[in-house]
Specification:
- With 376 residues, the chain is an alpha+beta fold.
- The chain has nine helices and 19 strands.
- The strands form five sheets. The protein has a six-stranded mixed beta sheet, sandwiched between helices. Strands 9, 11, 12, 14 and 15 form a five-stranded antiparallel beta sheet that branches.
- The longest helix has 18 residues, at 355-372.
């Protein structure tokens, strides 16, 4: 295989089954790391969990200019119950699209940043160089990136961070944060014909859910991210029809902005729900927000030929990315989500990515790397 052919590389990445759980990203991480090492990159592997690795690769870094950092994740979501029309790990090409689990989210993006990084050094060494942060364990709440932030000590500085998540190559400068919680209630079981002898945990949960339905953040609107939201997405409880349930639980999904504080939200929810509930924090990720007047952002806008004043130009995303962790790891660096995938195809049956978008992404990334040196 020609290692610099981005479509062939995308097919190769899709062929690795990295469905999370369990992830099993180690073999793919080693493949990616070896490819980069063969092309002159200094490569480091960080152990996440058994059979799971992160890859850090860099080339051309210097003391006189700051590098561009690119990031992507290797894991994918499960296939789902619906039957696929295309083999999910074959990377089949049909009608200008490449099909497979992870094609859009986000193995095409990972392939594009790898090829762009390698090709950028073909004729000369770009000023500032390039750093790649390729993570395991993103899909269930960016646990891999959070682990990396705690264990990796050589972050350094950067002029900008690009997360190659699916945006159809339209640069996006922010997304809401995520605060996921599991709330449980307890009771005393009894026969349903004698409910007065028990304490119904489902009733407690129902009252708590009603409180969440009417919860107010009391926050001003964020000019980029809008207003925070809250949702109860799942609930369960009880053993059978004719028993008083002694346990119930439900989930809370908060999507936050820069105008709210997660610690304060947790405290407010705790206060409003009272002593009848126990709250477990599942995911706690801040929003991503970048000032579009930053020189790096303006560079990317220019490369992508977008008009940020257009009402059709989306500046924020609805979904989470590793940028929630990596932006602060790189000391609040300008962070842009920019990748070739189709956002609406993420996690879908017959997931695909347009071939022209993958090839276009390579050229966009190479141009960003080349122009980045001129910012210094």
């Amino acid at each position: 295989m020609n290692s610099l052919n981005v479509i062939s590389l995308t097919q190769k990445l899709i062929a690795f089954n990295t469905i999370n759980p369990p992830g099993n990203e180690k073999e793919l991480a080693k493949y990616v790391g070896n490819l980069l090492s063969e092309n002159g990159f200094d490569v480091e592997y960080i152990l996440f969990e058994e059979n799971r690795l992160h890859v850090i690769a860099e080339k051309g870094l210097s003391e006189t200019a700051l590098p561009v950092v690119f990031s992507g994740h290797l894991d994918t979501v499960p296939l789902g119950a619906k039957k696929w029309s295309f083999a999910p790990f074959a990377g089949e090409i049909f009608d200008g699209k490449i099909y497979g689990r992870g094609s859009t989210d986000m193995k095409a993006g990972v392939a594009a940043i790898i090829v762009a990084a390698i090709q950028s050094f073909k004729n000369s060494s770009p000023k500032g160089g390039v750093k790649l942060v390729i993570t395991a364990g993103e899909e269930l709440g960016c646990q891999g990136a959070q682990h990396l932030a705690k264990t990796y000590k050589k972050w350094g500085k950067a002029s900008g961070l690009i997360i190659a998540e699916p945006t159809t190559n339209i640069p996006v400068i922010g997304h809401k944060g995520g605060l996921y919680m599991n709330v449980s209630t307890t009771g005393i079981t009894a026969h349903s014909s004698m409910p007065e002898l028990g304490v119904n945990a489902i009733y407690k949960a129902a009252k708590a859910i009603s409180v969440i339905e009417n919860f107010s953040f009391e926050a001003e609107k964020d000019s980029l991210l809008g207003s925070p939201t809250i949702n109860v997405g799942k609930m369960s409880g009880g053993m059978n029809l004719n028993s008083v349930p002694d346990h119930a639980e439900f989930t809370i999904d908060v999507r936050s902005t820069t105008k709210v504080n997660h610690t304060e939200i947790i405290q407010k929810i705790n206060n409003e729900l009272g002593d009848d509930t126990n709250i477990e924090i599942l995911v706690n990720l801040p929003p991503v927000s970048t000032n579009e007047n930053q020189p790096f952002v303006q560079l990317v806008y220019d490369v992508c030929k977008v008009d940020p004043t257009s009402s059709e130009f989306p500046k924020a995303l609805p979904y989470l990315t590793d940028g929630s962790v990596l932006q602060s790891a790189f000391n609040n660096v300008p962070t842009i989500i920019l990748g070739p995938g189709q956002p609406e195809m993420a996690h879908q049956t017959d997931e695909f990515c347009y071939i022209e978008k993958i090839e276009e992404a390579v050229e966009i990334y190479k141009t960003i790397i080349d122009r980045n040196g001129k910012l210094s």
